[in-house]
Amino acid sequence: xxxxKIMPMSGKFFAxxxxxxxxxxxxxxxxxxxxxxxxxxxxxAVVRIFGNNVTNADVRATLWVQTPDFRExxxxxxxxxxxxxxxxxxxxxxxxxxxxxxxxxYFEGPPPGTDILLNSLVVKHADKVPPSPPPDxxxxxxxxxxxxxxxxxxxxxxxxxxxxxxxxxQIGSPHILPPMARDTLGPHEPLSGRYxxxxxxxxxxxxxxxxxxxxxxxxxxYQVSGWVRIGSGATGPQNVNxxxxxxxxxxxxxxxxxxxxxxxxxxxxxxxxxxxxxxxxYVQGPASxxxxxxxxxxIFPVDRQARFRYLRRQTDKIRKREVMLKFSVSDSSxxxxxxxxxxxxxxSFPFGxxxxxxxxxxxDFVNFxxxxxxxxxxxxxxxxxxxxSQQGNFNYKDADDLLNLCQSYNIKTRGHCIFxxxxxxxxxxxxxxxxxxxxxxxxxxxxxxLNRYKGKFKHYDVNNEMxxxxxxxxxxxxxxxxxxxxxxxxxxxSALLFVNDYHxxxxxxxRSSPEKYIEQILDLQEQGAPVGGIGIQGHIDSPxxxxxxxxxxxxxxxxxxxxxxxxxVSSVNEYxxxxxxxxxxxxxxxxxxxxxxxxxxxxxxxxxRDNAQLVNAEGDVNEAGRRYLALKEEWLSRAHGHVDEQxxxxxxxxxxxxxxxxxxxxxKVLKTFVVEKGESSLVVPISL
Length: 688
Fold this sequence. Notes:
By secondary structure, the protein is an alpha/beta fold. The strands form seven sheets. An eight-stranded parallel barrel has the order 21-22-23-24-25-26-27-28, surrounded by five helices. Strands 9-12-17-14-15 form a five-stranded antiparallel sheet, with no helix packed on it. A hairpin with a 5-residue loop joins strand 4 (56-66) and strand 5. It is globular.
């Protein structure tokens, strides 16, 4: 092709899909008889594009699956940016859950009129990847600051200006450690009171910098902490960011928005998992011409185990309750000294997961889900773009199937979500409506969804991610958000109505800081919106306990229940991933304001993030999954002993369902009882 300029990369031939009129037109092959369900396959293709003056475009490999009842499923396998200059490789994995009647693999993506070229395609059973060993970290030096001359005793030695700005050392910054660092480090000597003043800035990225390449260890989680302040002359709020430049890639070490002339705490965290050649830390952000100040900058590795010891004690205080079993029997003298064995069979605290219609055709998935979770949320199946992708054509079957499964296992459900405020998630027919038609469509969506499922969903995320988008507010005015809450509450008063957003808990996004979230919630409440709960999504990287806890403490002052609604963590190393998961689960479970935790999936190839799974594609539970199960086991209470003179037995236990075995000389009796959530001690009468 192309007058002989395009030749195959390997072999003698390549295929081309020409005269394409839709972006989904492409090259396909039916593979029904050659794939088995519940096996992971790897697809590798070599592709490029040609024609129509398009120089690069996304090429995607997709699986089309038809079920025996003619339901269609589309499974994304891989995508790559292809060009008209070179062949590129496309690689990804897929797994078929059910027993399909037809399976087709095809290539799609480029705009109509551009040819898709395919040089080769190999689909084979994916090799099992051996689990990564736990990282071997010697001399971690937890809590030791890797920043040179952080106290500025030696002028600006060790520091350099990034760009043409000027650095000087001044006196008058806080002596106290920023609170999030103090919570990690414990007792600590005071800060020096010296700070770096940055002047003559002509670009936002200019500020003080240091090279830290040789001081970092792979797979360690580092906490970032410091004080920052801006000089005069700013018009409007200024973002200040501690940036980590890893081989010219920007890594976010924490951000804060500054709108006054006070010192502000800045905090965040990061981790490096591939050996870099150069790592630089620098502080940046305010508009050019704005001076700023940096004091007490610290970057130190975090000892997670030390924090876990504290959280275990905290959990015991917050989640357990004094329980007294009061036995009654016709002859009370026979009770004294009787042996009692108490075992909790289920903790009733909400631990849930995201599920999808495509998953529940796999009985192994259903088995793990129903055994290990007591709440569910649907990944896409309740979203408006799923239930009404074309105006007037409704698809509630997928949501109905998921709801039926949950009801049959007595699993409670969250409704996610009625609306989604981020513009690129709004289906095109909704985007094209006039203002009046949009008002009608919003009302119809509320009425249709909430009447259909009245009483079925315990929670609704009313308008998802309002800190990150404003589609409905821009078109229908500020009142629309509160109006959505009010109408939803009128249609289904039994459901708790949530706000839901991301990057609230990690210090890395000034748009969704706890302060901004509080402001939004109070604003909604002032307009009469019945906000019943706060959703923190929890898509988090390299979490640090005190940073997460600080956000929970701030949000806790509103007195509303907080839920982690979409928790996932990601690391190539499954032991590090397990540690990340344990950090968040322990922080959440030990915090009195948190009432539930939902994972955003658990099965490989069916999660929105790579390297986040608890269970590998073919059903093997990995280290992250084992850690989750171990924590669930740790949070079950057990006790044993003898009945006292009053015919009583006392213990401290988590909320949930229990079995008690009473063993006397003559007989063995098994009874069940429930410990509800509560503060005061609970008396459970047991008649023998």
